[in-house]
Amino acid sequence: MGDRIALRGLQAFGHHGVLPEERLNGQPFVVDVVLGVDTRAAAKTDDLAETVDYSSLAGRVVEAVGTDPVNLIETLAKRVADVCLAEPKVNDVEVTVHKPQAPVGVPFDDIAVTIHRSRT
User: What pTM did the predictor assign?
Assistant: First the structure.
């Protein structure tokens, strides 16, 4: 297993879902990303340019969730993975999109989709 940088619990608001009220009213989403990054050069040089600026990436992830509504959180997770893989230092990513207010009609703790994507 390689080095990992994790951003957990990123909160964003979006209008994703298949139901008309989800598209109209929107709802909160929570996103976790775990980045596969070789951190050796950054650790050696203590230089941010040698790793991922997670503050900047967090903003882009939240922005990706807040734009262009889609039906499925699977599609949203892929969009977030693409944002992460656009970072040159990211080799692979695990993305989990949580939909804490999903309209499923029964009490629940979590509704989430997790995907894994890599450059190869």
Answer: 0.95
